[in-house]
Amino acid sequence: MAEAADPPFDRPDVGFNDLPGWTWVGCYGGYYLQAELLAGFEHGFFTRQWQGREPEVLAGYLSAGVSVHRPSQVHGNAVLPASAARLAPWPQADGLCSDGGGQSLWVCGADCTPVLLADPVRGAVAACHAGWRGVAGAILSAAVEALEAAGSRRADLCVALGPAVSGARYQVERPVSEQVAAALPGGGGKAALRRAGALFEDPDPDRERLDIRVAARLQLLQLGLAEERISVCPLCTVSEPELFHSWRRDQVKAVQWSGIVSQA
Hints:
The chain has helices at about 55-60, 130-135, 140-150, 175-180, 190-195, 210-220, 245-250, and strands at about 20-25, 30-35, 45, 65-70, 80, 95, 105-110, 115-120, 125-130, 160, 170-175, 200, 205-210, 230, 255-260. It is of the alpha+beta class. The strands form four sheets. The chain has a six-stranded mixed β-sheet. A four-stranded mixed β-sheet has the order 3-15-7-4. Strands 11-13-12 form a three-stranded antiparallel β-sheet.
């Protein structure tokens, strides 16, 4: 891969040398993020610099000759087999689980957490769009269960949570955080969210600050995944306007894509 890219795909200055566990990958099309935890899999968390390039194009930057699978996202908790999301019109869902080799699974977002799951033993993968509704609806549990149903072991799974809105920038009404807390498989409610650093008080007594990435991580831990097998990108979509689209910041419908390729 090339280390330099033509403008406007310059090397991101933000966090370039200060993202433990994460790496910027440069190619002739630009730069995208990879989680070192998923180093055995072709994958990428793309930025707004790739605006206008759909998964059918982006897949070629990860691996040649792969099939492209993507859902029509509805902020729900459905996880479909990848083969059910091969052609337009894309089926309504917010997660996909591979059911064959050489499948590239894609989800998009602009503040919600893109979540890529991989089984390094079987080569199977899953991808989820996890906003607060998805987390409250237990989409991560559904993805883990879909991988298990296909033969994966929960203990083998590795998960990367990509750039999303940070807790400092995500003000929510209290019923939102209550729904997220109620979806914790191990219980603990809002107190568990606070202990994990996922929930903070807000100056507005009717609202709170929610870090949906940390809440998703807590869900995965309570589902039995090992802490060292979960990687959370520290970049905030709201705070980095040059890198990421953000609905919270701009109130404009635009997204960045994230994808992972199955091995078997």
